Amino acid sequence: MDAGERRSVGRVRRDSWVLGAAIGVFGASFGVLATTSGLTAAQACLMSLVVFTGASQFAVVGVLAAGGSLGSAFGSALLLAARNAAYGVALAPVLAERSLGRRLRAAHLVIDESTAMATAQPAGPLRESAFWATGLAVFVCWNLGTLVGALAGSAIGDPRALGLDAAFPAGFVALAVPHLRGRQGRVAAAFGAAIAVALIPLTPAGVPIVAAALGIVPAVLFTRTAEEDREAGEDGDADDEDTAA
Amino acid sequence: MSWLAIVALGAAAYGLKALGLVGLGPRAAEGRALRAAALLPAALLPALVAVNTFAGDRRLVLDARAVGLLVAVVATWRRAPFVLVVALAAASTAVVRAIS
Question: pLDDT 10s per residue in chain A (245 long)?
């Protein structure tokens, strides 16, 4: 690894802890919500350890707190967790060289943040470093946060007062940039965002994000890559599509 | 909520993650399928941003989070470091919330 790569790994680690810190505060608010909706502190901590998908966990305790059934709580949670399957597909090439055992351990860390951070890096070993760094930082912070929130109870304030709910979309904006360099990526992004926005009023939470995966269909079917442009003898798009492949 | 229910939910959530990473993902090993799989984050991340910013309880809402998003887009466009993008978005959202 040369000096430039070491600097990149350092930057990725630092950014991972930035996300982790924000996640930790939300972990604390999850711990509070879970214990006020009838879970014991130990159950809240177990859920963060084994479920480890923030949106799903908030959905479960939210539905239970509102008096909903366990079935509808699970339904909401799994709809929100379904996007992790799509993330796994996107991350598979990053971990393709690893043993099955290591990939099965990695699977637990397949979430929004680790996927965004890994796939934002240039192709190569930095993607795997970013995946582990972010996955582990978020895992540690989410679980510590849950513990603190579950024990401290309502002494924890609302993270929204600090604007922390805006921290995640902001982070994902920054991490989406490398995906927008190629024409196919821009088409997929535009369709993905449009599908999600259109479905927000129409479907249960979770569905808009999963359905946004269909945004890759027009990108694959109707958009030529810079490479295909060159093959067709036209002026190629100056952006390199293959950096995202 | 029982301990068993929590473990069952954990197993289901893990199953979805592993389905992608270990089950379906490695089958898209080449050519067009791989290229399509590589585009998934391009489609999903902007959707995640949109939902995290504009989703209310089954409706579209425009609130202080939209200001944070706007600030984040500008900061990213100006090539601000990641930490600054996140911090400026959170701070601007908090300020708008405090004064509105």
Answer: 678 888 888 999 999 999 999 899 889 989 988 998 889 999 999 999 999 999 999 989 988 888 888 888 999 899 999 999 999 999 999 999 999 999 999 999 999 999 999 999 998 899 999 999 999 999 999 999 999 999 987 677 778 888 888 888 998 898 899 899 899 999 999 999 999 999 999 998 889 989 999 999 999 987 777 666 667 654 444 444 444 44
Asked if B90 lies within 8 A of A164 by C-beta distance, the reply is yes
CB-CB under 8 Å, B93 with A166: yes
Across the interface, of A18, A56, A164, the residue whose CB is closest to B83 is A18
Q: What is the rounded CA–CA span in Å between residue A178 and residue A163?
A: 25
Residue B27 has a CB neighbour count (10 Å cut-off) of 12
Q: Could you state, in order of their start, the residue ranges of all structural domains in chain A?
A: 3-164, 182-245
Interface of A with B in 38-97 (CB under 8 A): 38-39, 43, 46-47, 49-53, 56, 60, 64, 70, 74, 77-78, 81-93, 95-96
Distance CA A91, CA A118 (A): 8
Taking the Cβ of residue A239 and every Cβ of chain B, the question of whether any pair is shorter than 8 Å is answered with no
d(CA A176, CA A158): 28
* Yes or no, beta carbons of B93 and A95 under 8 Å apart: no
Query: How much is the pTM?
Result: 0.85
The helix (run of H) or strand (run of E) holding residue B99 is helix B82-99
How far A231 CA lies from chain B's nearest CA (Å)? 16
Amino acid identity for residue A165 in this structure: D
DSSP B55: B
Q: Do B24 and A110 touch (CB under 8 A)?
A: no
